[in-house]
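We treat protein structure as text, and this decision shapes the records that our systems exchange. Such a record has a labelled line for the sequence and another for the backbone structure tokens. The record that follows is passed on verbatim for readers who wish to inspect the format:
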Amino acid sequence: MDPSFTLSPVAQRSFVSGAGEQDDPPTLRPLPAWSAAKPEPASGLERVFGSRSFFRLWLAQGVSSLGDWIGFIAVTALAARIGGRSPEGAVSLVLSARLVPGFFLAPVAGVFVDRWDRRRVMVACDVGRGLVLAALPFARTIPILVLASFALEVLTLMWMPAKEASVPNMVPGDRLASVNSLSLAVAYGTFPVASALFALLAKVAQWLGGIRALHVLQVRQESVALWFDLLTFFVSAALIATLSLPRRTAPPRDRHREVARTFEELRDGWRFVAVNPVVRAVILGLGTGLIGGAMVVPLGPVISKQVFGAGTAGFGVLLTALGTGVAIGIVGLSVVQRRLPHERTFVAALLGSGACLFAAAAMSSLGTACVLVAGMGVCAGTVYVLGFSMLQANVEDDLRGRVFATLYTLIRVCALLAFTLAPLLASLLDSSSRRLVGRPAHMLGFAVALPGVRLTLWLGGVIIFGAGLLARHSVRVSQRAGRRSSDTLA
């Protein structure tokens, strides 16, 4: 390995050696000793969730996700009401406060997640989010809502890496893909439930508003929703407090060098991501591939109207097809994941996702496009679940928080790029296409219209496919280095 590349003492113990291009071959993180020796789960609960500890964490995540969605809807409604004559601007400003911390603070949050006791981090973050929500019903100005949204996001950025980094300590290594499928399902499957509950809480608010003693609280639908959200976070904290996780004892630290040590550990995490081929493949695949996939959201209504002639209703059908495909991918993977090679399946799903998006954008029929978009969803769900599982299996505990914090930062950046640049790029390509082509182009005997939205989605498919090729190269580098290591040991 390059002698100029040095890590901090904690990271040196946990660094997965070798980057493929370096002299020392990479080795995968071995499963914990208890994982290899553990007998088959005796109960149905353990067969599904891997362990009782993860089941409690999964329940906590479900309760917390339900509250998160309700809180998101409530804060948006509260911002629109307080915004007065400019509700759209108020909502945009408040939601922007949820994005900003992810760009700047997520990597630093990962450093502290790797230092501190993760169970306590999750409990403290849940309690902190609950306390912030308790004060929100009394907010009267947009700046207060912005500060509250900022604080909520910072606490969430601590909670999420701590949760992902703790999962491998709860379940056997061969169950990671299954439990990540369950986590993804409960994270996004609670959204329709949250929407229905928010509507139901309007009736609760009307009933509470009729109680004279509560008039001082100015009970509204948003207030009741936020208090309900507070309750979900406290329930989540109580469930997580019962978890049994390995204690993390930090070495003695020199307070005068605390800032320098933080940057050193932050650098260690980034360098680990850069040089480990498997981790690099996953993060590039998930992040870069998201640029192409996220283009469907802002451009979906446009292609539905201009190409498929289905209007807004067609966009709803496309989103339904995408969501159905994701659900099928998640459920199907949880059933067959033990019989699949994770690295090769991850790459194949990434390539398949790009191919499906490219083909869907080439269609002129909404029905055919929906089938291909559903196929893209199946591949995307597979990529997401396997990507998280590969990170959890190939990153040592001392670095896991920083790696997941880096992943979440990249996901935010790539999604924001897709949402903001896709419409601009579509408009630019549309003007260029009209000027250069001016009429449908003939390809393989077919007349194909080339509006900017189709060209942009084709570019998105190419980006995803390119991310898959990069991921395949990194995986092959890791496999070749592993074979060299095996030959040397033999």
